[in-house]
Amino acid sequence: MVVFGIVQIFLSQLPNFHKLWWLSIVAAVMSLVYSFIAVGLSTASIISGNTGKTSITGTEVGVDVDSSQKVWKAFQALGDIAFAYSYSMILIEIQDTLRSPPAENKVMKKASFMGVSTTTVFYVLCGCLGYAAFGNRAPGNLLTGFGFYEPYWLIDIANVCIVVHLVGAYQVFSQPIYAAVEKLIAERCPNNKMLTYEHRVTSNGHLACSVNMFRLIWRTIFVVISTLLAILMPFFNDVLAFLGAVGFWPLTVYFPIMMYISQKNIARFTPKWMLLQSISFLCFLVSLAAACASIEGVIESLHHYTPFQTRS
After folding, report:
1. Predicted model pTM
2. For the chain, how long is the longest CA-to-CA vector?
3. What is the pLDDT of residues 117-129, one digit of tens each?
4. For residue 272, what are the contacts with CB-CB under 8 A and spacing of at least 6?
5. In 3D, which of 238, 300, 91, 84 has the Cα closest to residue 176?
6. pLDDT in tens, 195-248
7. In a domain, 30, yes or no
8. Is residue 39 a part of any domain in this protein?
9. Can you give the residue range of the structural domain that contains 168?
């Protein structure tokens, strides 16, 4: 994780989101590779008959979990599912990198349809086949379930792909944060040279990059803090569910619905307005339940936690 943080310190010096197109492509390819491997290994396990106990209702109360754990884990799963919608946070950033013609919104509609369709297929396959392969003992990270079986090299390839994918994902989600903070500070301190001066660094007269002192210092601090928090709180599924729950309702449901109502001039208390608001309220309850469950999961994990030693 320390090495991961060091890599992110260097990548974070890329000045803006526009420079990340190559990293996004690499990350996307990596996600396809490890998803194919997970689906393939799950299918092979099902065909071999080496599967876990499955049921329509999932884990059994009194056997696998108690009643309260059943409820909390179900809500936490909603948070993990909600995290799949996190792409909505960066849609505007992606659209901002497109050139016209054709119109950016038309390109984004096609890209969103292709992206959502592809991820839906893989989520469904990994979820269904993974459960069919491992049953009620399915691990939080599907690939760890194959860790003690051949072929070891295939598992290693999948894990490498996950790491590379997360390297790209970190930047895709961090760059908009960097841009927002730097824009805000630049507006408040427009005459500060530390914020605007770009020092050009070259190597052998060929490889060149621009270094800004403020960007170097604050982005490095950001990465160091996030890496330290990740090491201190190695509760991957719980934290993932919390992030998914927190971002799902406001960014994926509430704001888009309110913008749609405003754009279409939908009158208050009309059937369409009531339907949209009901959907928003239902999704709010889902986010609230998932957030509570993820916090409960972290609290439960802390009972068996040793700083800098416990691993997820």
Report:
1. 0.74
2. 69
3. 888 898 899 888 9
4. 266
5. 91
6. 666 666 666 655 556 777 888 888 999 999 999 888 887 777 777 778 778 888
7. yes
8. yes
9. 2-53+64-302
